[in-house]
Amino acid sequence: MYLLDTTVWIDLLRTNSPAIRRKLTAHTGSRVGLSIITLCELQYVLERRAVRHPHLRTREQHMLSAIVAPILAPAFAATPQASPPGICLPIPAHSG
Fold first, then answer.
1. What domain count does the chain have?
2. CA 26 – CA 6 distance, rounded (Å)
3. Most buried in the list 68, 76, 77, 79, measured by CB within 10 Å?
4. pLDDT tens per residue, the chain (96 residues)?
């Protein structure tokens, strides 16, 4: 399992970094995680940015929600006994 820190998630959100995507794709079948602290930090960054750029708030909130939805849904659907610590999902195989 790979628990990505806030800076990695920010790079993915801002640049859709091919280098990070390649590294994740190299570990297809592994799980990638997002700590609740990182999720809160990402929301904080979004809120701070929205102060300066309010016109971007809706788009960026939608983008963050879309990225974390596949991670959060399985974590909250699982029973506490079956749920691994943290919030995670399998790294999908590269398509294309």
1. 1
2. 20
3. 68
4. 778 888 888 888 788 788 888 887 887 777 777 888 888 888 888 889 889 999 988 888 888 888 777 766 555 555 444 444 444 445 555 554
Q: Is 75 inside a domain boundary?
A: yes
Q: Which parts of the chain are beta strand (E)?
A: 2-3, 31-34, 87-90
Q: Write the CA distances from 2 to 5, 15, 34, 49, integer angstroms.
A: 9, 20, 9, 27
Farthest-apart Cα atoms in the chain, separation: 43
pTM check: above 0.70: no
Residue 96 within a domain:
no
Measure CA 35 to chain center. Answer: 9
Only one residue has tokens 């790979």, namely 2
Distance (Å, whole) CA 29 – CA 91? 6
